[in-house]
Amino acid sequence: MWGNSLGTLDSRVDPQNLPTGLSAAWPGQGYACFGGGGDYATAYAERGEIYDVVRAEGITGFVTVSGDRHAFWAGLSAKSLPPLPFDPVGVAFITGSVSAPGIVEAYEHRFPKDHPLRALYVADVAGQQKAAVNLLLHHRVRTCLEYQRTGDAAAARRLSNPDLAPHLAFLDMGGHGYAVLRLSADRVECEFVCIPRPSEPTSERDGGPIRYRVVHRAARWPSGGRPRLEQLVVEGDPDLAL
């Protein structure tokens, strides 16, 4: 178990696949780092050394838990992503914040409504502002544009680029709440409990309503094997987080 104050899962986007004319052309064919670094998402050499030790020592059941990103993340821990080899050595979970605002709130309040790339970050659908940045990091830029055009999340996900984020199972950059981790000798289970945006305090004894509960499980894998995450939506609608 690696209890880390900083997130470890990669965050990247594919601006090389933006439609021609939407913005200045991305200078190359490769992916872009999202967010400017600051945690293990971009500490490639140091994080890679840790994962190399896990692999070389045949360690199984390797689980990383962290916070700091003010968002819910669940995925696989890997030294690199496509087009480099993708060889996960563990599973990782990042919990959302209970009340501290995150990047989605910032986008909603400050991202210009006439910006040509707004749809990649905030989708204006049916009179609501939706966290399109979840699609951007999990699926690809074109899923965001399709969602803005149609408001159909399922249709947007059908355009997903499987090489962008094969390590991600769940991502909610606008989620508030907490995570519960349950461990046994043969598996790990992490439950994300997401509440409505806490703009006002609640006086209800049970803490008030929730938006969703999502559970991710991983059975302990054999040495040299590959970890796998099972996802179960227990309650509510995670919307664009899937």
Give structural notes.
- The chain has five helices and 13 strands.
- A five-stranded mixed beta sheet has the order 1-4-6-5-9. Strands 10-11-12-13 form a four-stranded antiparallel beta sheet, with no helix packed on it. Strands 2-3 form a two-stranded antiparallel sheet.
- The mean pLDDT is 95.
- The protein is an alpha+beta fold and 242 residues long.
- The chain has one domain.
Strand order of the largest sheet: 1-4-6-5-9
Termini, distance in Å?
Answer: 25 Å
Rounded radius of gyration (Å): 18 Å
Q: Based on Cα principal axes, name the global outline.
A: globular
Helix/strand/pairing category? alpha+beta
Order of helices and strands: EEEHEEEHEEHHHEEEEE
Q: How many strand segments?
A: 13
Mean pLDDT: 95
Q: Give the helix proportion (percent range).
A: 10-25%
**Tally of structural domains:** 1
Approximately how much beta-strand content do the residues carry?
25-35%
> Low-confidence stretches at least 5 residues in length (pLDDT < 50)?
none
Largest sheet: 5 strands, mixed
The total count of helices amounts to 5
Any chance you could write out the topology, listing elements then pairs?
Layout: E1 2-4, E2 12-13, E3 32-33, H1 44-56, E4 63-66, E5 72-77, E6 90-94, H2 103-110, E7 123-125, E8 128-130, H3 133-138, H4 141-150, H5 153-157, E9 168-172, E10 176-183, E11 187-195, E12 212-219, E13 230-236
Parallel strand pairs: 1-4, 4-6
Antiparallel strand pairs: 2-3, 5-6, 5-9, 7-8, 10-11, 11-12, 12-13
